[in-house]
Amino acid sequence: MSSNHRFCLGPLTQARTLKLGYKFRQKGRKLLWRRKKTMNGQDYDESSSSAAAVTNPVSGDPRMGKKQRFMNLMRTTKDVYIPNLTSSISQKTMDGIRSTTNSFEGSNDMLAQLPHNTMISFYPTYTTTNLVDSDGVSAPRKDFRTTVRCAVSYPGNPTSRRNRWLVSLCKQYLRTGTVDADNAPVVPARLEDDGEDLMDSQSSIESSSSSKSGNRSPHMGTQEEDVLNERIQGFLSRKVPNTPIVIDLLPKDSLRGNTASFFGTTDYYGNLLLKAETDFLPSKIDITLDTPVAGRSDPISQSFPVNYVSPYGVGLISDIDDTIKHTGVTGDKRSMFRNVFIHDVKSWVIDGVPLWYKTLHDVADVDFFYVSNSPIQTFPILKSYICTNYPPGPIFLKQYSGNFFSTIMTSSANRKIEPIMNILRDFPKKKFILVGDSGEHDLEAYTTTALQFPNQILAIYIRCCSNSMSDSPSHEQEVMKEVNNIIELQQQPIRTPKSSLQTRRRPPPPPPPVPAGRKPSLTKEQTESIRLSRHNEVEDSTSKAVPPALPKRNLPNLDTDDYCLPSSQNDYGMYGAFMDRKADEWKRRVMDSIQKLSNQDTTLMFFSDPAISLEDSIRRIREKYSS
What we know:
The protein is α/β, with parallel strands linked by helices and 627 residues long. It is built from 18 helices and 15 strands. Helix 13 links the parallel strand 13 and strand 14.
């Protein structure tokens, strides 16, 4: 077949082609007619296409060529129609995102009815005798003050997009299929079943729990996944904000009728913090949700006991992570995640610390308070661990911010300062011992607290956790001893200034002056002998031999090329081979804290063996109360 051969079309095909071309031409004419009307000023928006109007004011002129009219059409489409279309699409997209987000994240508005499985989480705090003076403006203070902390939530739907993504991400982060799993990078989590509808359905949690067995991760064992699902439930639950709550404080003798009622509303996170003052010592707290419940005629209400703490004596404020519980904040983040959500609770115990705390509680009647940066969603497991191994006490944790991994991985000691200072304000007559660890900035946080409450802090103890004191793990004990030596040398002159002055001997008094009227008279022979003796001394001093000159030294020849002037700079990069940056940083931090606490009677000690801190804390308590 030749290259210039033309295909022959049948009559039916030719008719259809002509008809189709005619339709396109008709549409083109109508579209061009509409554009001409727009450019001539009919239904024309100057604000939206001012650039096109200024550039081509006579675009509707029929004398213009086809090319010019086509260019005007393109310019008008670009300046007018495309921006309008883009804004419409963006608006509809944002509306869809908002509706989708509200469908599985929940709204912050008050619910008309609470779900039937709504729960009240109570965080025990304390009741104490009110010793805070009145400001003279508000009502007089009552005898007792009770701090109430609680939260309202209900279990989240496991099939929702957020919860499925979170569980899948945790499973992938905890995978153990590779040998080097702890150092493997974390890839973005992929939902397990992309074909299903991931929107928050209204099906019950019981029906969705039957599908868990089919979604086992191949990198996790059955037992590990069950432990993970149990400990992560607090992060899957949904908050109930703006919920009215009624709190009733009841006395021991309920027949007297002394009942105090207080009202509050949960915040954005579904939490409530309320401080109530009463004329009687309450023994029980009744918390009632003042909102109708779906499927129930009576409101949700629960009762909780009251913990009374004496306003006098000694209290101990303790950190949790790496202080009384193995967490590994300074180590690998994946290992820390496994410690929190997978490992057995028995592996958390730090040897010697339970004996120290229980001895202080039993011997010195010390009250305990636990403050940590752990998320408040881990409260149930932490409460069970502390009540099993340590003296009971109120637990203050960090509010979950919304970013799950950021909440778990990041930690800041500055967040501990606020709850610690609230405890000190509630107990102004109580002395406190602060216990932390070297993995975080507990030293700076406790130093700031001691400066603001100088008469309440007896001692600060910092536990040396692994990989925190030195660049070399084998030198951490040496660095701890050096730091304690610095503390002892710096605090010793401050502690014993009076004793050093008392043992110092007084200088002997100067001889009495000779009276002017009793000046002895010398004879001529005595005066001459004195003059001759002075003359002989001058001659002897001038006749002394001059010492010989120092021998000459062979200086190097500076003109040769093999001589190099030594440098004080790190020319060869060898400082890192013998300098311990972590140790130097700790020495600087300790010196800074000692200087700030120089005028206070506060003990500072680093320890790795809790027996040493136990002995020192008992000694400090006895010294304080014996004097």
